[in-house]
């Protein structure tokens, strides 16, 4: 298929580019580089010895979208573009409504006008709110506990309404659990600006010496060792999940699907495994709980297996080894002059 990746220069988008290329798909990236480094395009070009087709544009720019659809005529869109920091969504909510909600609406309008009615959407396990039961199945009630999550839920609702009104649309709503790690080449990986919010980039930046110490947010949860438990998924597995989700294009269905491993690990499990497989030390101290955190969540991953024939292959050792290979080879991320 010919696939447009909005936000394709970002962390998950760049890994999905690799997986799609390996499966012979044709790809165009559309990204405004608000949270990505242009050097990622050079890395992707090196991996495949081929120029990366890309457009520097914002998904809120309707006329450019129209031009891109006319010029490239993609069969489907995988829609990663958006803002994703929970804390920032509390202090700058309009950025989130604009990028995530208005941006998605503009994209869908342009797709409809161009008669491209196949979309894979990046949603998040955050739409389950506070888990009422584990593992989380796709039928778990939906709610939001922060503005970022609210915008994901609104876009999911927009997609369900659109499909309800016009069943020519095919929609795969992928609810990611906790993507971590990097491509095993060490050439692409997660490169957050500023101080990382998420656990794995924080661990890798402590290990490489950019940050002094990790704070473990709470050790008094009702979990095996008291620290928070999450369903970490290797970003390369997640990327393969997008390749598999293309099966649902041109089916006239609208389906939410969890992308997780089905297994939860604690913060201490992650630190200890990282230290063991990489033979590095990750100094940490126990701190207060982070407001808004839940004790534990992990996916029921059955639906992805049944509908897409996809399941995660890589365990936390590979997540830790590959995350470290990326960070240790690129201590400052893509731009070593930072
Ligand atoms: P990322 O920030 O690395 O990638 C997003 C990309 O979109 C960036 O390259 C950014 O420059 C681009 N972008 C942002 N706003 C844009 C706009 N208006 N127009 C064009 N491009 C724009 O994030 P990621 O981790 O790769 O996440 C991708 C998607 O998956 C996001 O929608 C995110 O909310 C969702 N998601 C991520 C996680 C996670 O833990 N990383 C978990 C669940 C869901
Ligand atoms: C967070 C977001 C979630 C979002 C997801 C994207 C919050 C409250 N939730 O999920 O909405 O979809 O990122 O990936 O921000 N931890 C530490 N020290 C740190 C960082 C994290 O102990 O410096 C712990 C957390 O308390 C948690 C676990 O590590 O138990 C994972 O945290 P994180 O990587 O931020 O992911 P989530 O909180 O699951």
Q: Descriptors for this entry?
A:
binds uridine-diphosphate-N-acetylglucosamine; binds nicotinamide-adenine-dinucleotide; 11 helices; alpha/beta; 39% helix; 7-stranded parallel sheet; 13 strands; 338 residues; two-stranded parallel sheet; Rossmann fold
Q: How would you describe what is shown here?
A:
The strands form 4 sheets. The chain has a 7-stranded parallel beta sheet, with helices on both faces. Helix 6 (147-165) links the parallel strand 5 (118-124) and strand 6 (170-176). It is α/β, with parallel strands linked by helices and 338 residues long. The chain is globular, with a radius of gyration of 19 Å. The protein has a single domain, classed as NAD(P)-binding Rossmann-like Domain (Rossmann fold). The chain is built from 11 helices and 13 strands. It binds nicotinamide-adenine-dinucleotide (NAD) and uridine-diphosphate-N-acetylglucosamine (UD1). Uridine-diphosphate-N-acetylglucosamine binds next to helix 6, helix 7 and strand 8.
């Amino acid at each position: 298929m010919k696939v447009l990746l909005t936000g394709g220069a970002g962390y998950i988008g760049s890994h999905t580019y690799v997986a799609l290329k390996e499966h012979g798909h044709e790809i165009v990236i559309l990204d405004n580089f608000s949270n990505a480094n242009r050097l990622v395009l050079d890395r992707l070009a090196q991996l495949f010895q081929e120029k990366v087709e890309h457009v520097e544009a914002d998904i809120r720019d309707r006329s450019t979208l129209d031009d891109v659809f006319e010029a490239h005529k993609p069969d489907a869109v995988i829609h990663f573009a958006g803002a994703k920091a929970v804390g920032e969504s509390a202090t700058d909510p309009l950025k989130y409504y604009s990028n995530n909600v208005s941006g998605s609406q503009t994209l869908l309008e342009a797709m409809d006008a161009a008669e491209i009615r196949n979309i894979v959407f990046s949603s998040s396990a955050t739409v389950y709110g506070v888990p009422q039961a584990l593992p989380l199945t796709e039928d778990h009630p939906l709610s939001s506990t922060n503005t970022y999550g609210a915008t994901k839920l609104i876009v999911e609702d927009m997609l369900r309404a659109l499909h309800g009104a016009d069943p020519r649309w095919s929609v795969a709503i992928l609810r990611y659990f906790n993507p971590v790690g990097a491509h095993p080449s060490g050439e692409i990986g997660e490169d957050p600006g500023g101080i990382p919010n998420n656990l794995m980039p924080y661990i890798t930046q402590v290990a490489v010496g950019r940050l002094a110490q990790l704070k473990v947010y709470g050790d008094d949860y009702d979990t095996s060792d008291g620290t928070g438990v999450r369903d970490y998924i290797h970003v390369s597995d997640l990327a393969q999940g997008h390749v598999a989700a293309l099966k649902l294009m041109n089916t006239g269905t609208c389906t939410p699907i969890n992308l997780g491993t089905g297994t939860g690990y604690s913060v201490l499990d992650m630190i200890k495994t990282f230290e063991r497989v990489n033979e590095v030390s990750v100094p940490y101290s126990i701190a207060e709980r982070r407001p808004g955190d839940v004790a534990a969540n992990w996916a029921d991953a059955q639906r992805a297996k049944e509908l897409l024939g996809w399941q995660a292959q890589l365990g936390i050792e590979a997540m830790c080894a590959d995350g470290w290979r990326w960070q240790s080879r690129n201590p400052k991320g893509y731009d070593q002059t930072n």
